[in-house]
Write a structure and sequence with these properties.
With 124 residues, the chain is mostly helical. 69% of the residues lie in helices and 0% in strands.
Length: 124
Amino acid sequence: MVDQQTLGGRIGLSRNARNLTTEQVAKRIGVKVSTLQNWENDRSEPRPSKLQMLAGVLKVPVLWLLAGNNIDQDFEVDIDVSETADIASKLEQLHHHHQQTAKIIFELMSDIRRLQRDIDEDVV
């Protein structure tokens, strides 16, 4: 159960609401996964610049991250996947297809070299 009473709890809640992994969020704000995990577990807190970036990635107000619902009783974390999460998912799919394409190109190049050797041996 996520503790919404702490900064770390609200970070984790917001991240989960956006369907983002700790790896995705950490990469977007330029920190190690362990750093983000420490924030979510209330072992440490982000610097103001990272807090601002974190709020942007999670699409929540900085004040909500800092103070919770006491700052704005009408604020609710949107559970829809954020636009950036959708873009990141598409980018991951593209990366996967790129890897598959590179593998096929490598195999084709190997086949061409093998065929060229066979042709060269037949000519000699």
